[in-house]
Write a structure and sequence with these properties.
Helix content is 29%, strand content 35%. With 184 residues, it is α+β, with helices and mostly antiparallel strands. The longest helix has 17 residues.
C-alpha cells in the first residue's frame, strides 16, 4: 500500500512538471516572456543595449546611475535612466532605444550645481543657467531639456515672491523664447 501511494505521488509530481503550462502561475510568466520577445535586449537589430545607454549618460554627466529601465514613449521604446549627481540631485534621462540620442532630461527640485551637455549641437546646462541668471536674479528650482515642435529647449522653473515663473531658452542658440510668470 505504501508503495502504491509512493508511485502515485511520483506520477503526480511528474505530471505537474511536464504540464507546467496548465498552472495559473505560469500564465503570468508566459505573458511576460511573449512581450519580452517583442523587444529583446540582444542587440540583433543594433539597438542600444542597457549598457550602451548607461555608458552614454556617464559620458555626458558625472554621477551615479541608480536606475535604468526600458519604458515606452508614444509606443516607442526608450531607456529611462536616473542619475544621482555628485551634489545629490536626481536627473532623469530619456534616451532613444534606437540610437545614442537624448529625448529629454528632467531635474528634481534641488540646487543645480552640476553640468551636462546633451549634444555638441546644444549649449551646456551651465551656459543656459548663466543666461537665465543674466535675465533674472532668481535661483533655478528645476529644469527640463526637451523638444518642442522642431526645436530643442531648456525650460527653467524659478522661485519668486509672487510664485513660480517659467523661462524657456532655445537649446541651440541660447536665446530666450518666453518668460511666463504665474502668481499664486
Amino acid at each position: 500500500m505504501k508503495r502504491l501511494n509512493y508511485h502515485r505521488t511520483v506520477i503526480i509530481v511528474l505530471i505537474m512538471l511536464i504540464s507546467q503550462n496548465c498552472f495559473p502561475g505560469n500564465f503570468i510568466a508566459d505573458k511576460y516572456m511573449k512581450s519580452a520577445f517583442n523587444f529583446p535586449d540582444t542587440n540583433k537589430n543594433n539597438h542600444l543595449s542597457i549598457l550602451d545607454a548607461v555608458n552614454y549618460i556617464s559620458e555626458i554627466s558625472p554621477g551615479e546611475i541608480v536606475s535604468a529601465e526600458k519604458k515606452f514613449r508614444k509606443d516607442n521604446p526608450v531607456w529611462e535612466l536616473i542619475l544621482l549627481t555628485e551634489p545629490g540631485s536626481a536627473v532623469k534621462f530619456e534616451v532613444s532605444y534606437f540610437e545614442r540620442t537624448i529625448l529629454s532630461v528632467i531635474s528634481d527640485e534641488t540646487p543645480v550645481k552640476y553640468d551636462l551637455r546633451p549634444s555638441e549641437n546644444f549649449i551646456s546646462l551651465t551656459q543656459a543657467i548663466k543666461i537665465v541668471s543674466e535675465h533674472t536674479p532668481q535661483n533655478v528650482l528645476k529644469w527640463k531639456f526637451h523638444k518642442i515642435k522642431d526645436s530643442w529647449e531648456y525650460s527653467f522653473w524659478l522661485f519668486t515672491k509672487s510664485g513660480k515663473a517659467q523661462l524657456r531658452l532655445n537649446a541651440e542658440s541660447g536665446e530666450i523664447i518666453s518668460s511666463k510668470k504665474k502668481s499664486k
